[in-house]
Structure formats: C-alpha cells, structure tokens
C-alpha cells in the first residue's frame, strides 16, 4: 500500500526544482517507491568544501529536499502545507566525486508532524550521512474573506 496522497511522476517532481537551490546543486529525484523517495546529488565543485570533500551543508540540503518532497506527497495540498521544523545530520563518511544517493523513509506520519529518516550513501553504497527531518503540517490559510463595509452608527 502506498504512503502517498498525491501521485506525481518523477518528471513532475523534478520540474519543481527549476530555478531553485536543488537545481543549482544538481539534485535529481530518481525513484519513488511505495514508502520512500530517492534522489541523487553530484559531488563536484558545487558541493565541495575547501578540502575537496562533500560539504556537510550540501548533505543537509539533499536530506531536507528529499524529506520535504516526501512530506508534500503525504498531504492534501488544497487544505494543507508542510514546512521544515528541524533537521539534524550526522556526517559519518566522506565522498569526493561521483554522486551521493539519499533515501527518505518515514519514521512518523502524523496529523501535524512528519518525521523522516534520510540515509545518504556513495555510489558504492558507503554510508556518508544519516539525517532526521521533522516537518510541520499546517492548514493552508483560507482565502481572504471579503471585508464587510462599515456602516455608520445611527
């Protein structure tokens, strides 16, 4: 059984990246399973720190991107929205080239919060980063009510 309330293709999801940070650092969503979302990011000049290794902040960007996209697929966008509330990332390995691949899986899908486990690995399967992302699920603001004209008291 699928976790997702919205059914989008990878092409539709990747189109959301246009002109945003994800496009700038080369993040691409590559697989959508029944309870996970997988993406990859190049390890190159855009994502390196000065020593030529994957920047920890780039790993956090990949983790938050995957968890945020996954959460957005778990809500009804007509009445809800979701925003990142907290992220942590433990950098347990390194990468200097190629791609890193992240996989987001749910830990908790509640009414007001979602918690995601994101594991980032090298192309060879070596663990690079483990991250946990908490998303707040909020009601979408209602459309502005048309203001009632004020009447003079008689």
Short description:
With 154 residues, the chain is of the alpha+beta class.
What is the topology?
Blueprint: H1 10-15, H2 21-25, E1 28-32, E2 37-42, H3 56-73, E3 80-91, E4 99-109, E5 113-122, E6 127-139
Antiparallel strand pairs: 1-2, 2-4, 3-6, 4-5, 5-6
Number of strands: 6
Q: What's the number of structural domains?
A: 1
Taking pLDDT < 50 over at least 5 consecutive residues as the criterion, the unreliable ranges are none
The residue-averaged pLDDT reads 93
| Continuous helix count | 3
**CATH H-level superfamily:** Hotdog Thioesterase
Residues in β-strands, percent: 35-45%
Rg calc:
19 Å
Percent of residues in helices: 10-25%
What is the name of the CATH architecture? Roll
* N-to-C SSE string, H for helix and E for strand: HHEEHEEEE
Instruction: Assign an overall shape.
Output: globular
Distance between the termini: 64 Å
- Broad structural category: alpha+beta
CATH fold call: Thiol Ester Dehydrase, Chain A
- Strand count, sense and closure of the main sheet? 6 strands, antiparallel
């Amino acid at each position: 059984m699928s976790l997702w309330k919205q059914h989008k293709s990878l092409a539709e999801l990747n189109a959301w990246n246009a002109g945003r940070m994800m496009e700038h650092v080369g993040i691409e969503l590559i697989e959508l399973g029944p309870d996970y979302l997988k993406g990859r990011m190049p390890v190159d000049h855009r994502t390196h720190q000065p020593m030529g290794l994957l920047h920890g902040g780039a790993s956090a960007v990949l983790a938050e991107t995957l968890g945020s996209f996954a959460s957005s697929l778990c809500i009804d966008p007509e009445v809800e929205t979701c925003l990142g509330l907290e992220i942590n990332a433990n950098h347990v390995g390194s990468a200097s080239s190629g791609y890193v691949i992240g996989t987001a899986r749910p830990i908790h899908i509640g009414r007001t919060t979602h918690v995601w486990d994101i594991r980032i690995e090298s192309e060879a399967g070596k663990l690079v980063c483990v991250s946990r992302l908490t998303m707040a699920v909020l009601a979408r603001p209602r459309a502005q009510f048309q203001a009632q004209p004020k009447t003079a008291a008689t």
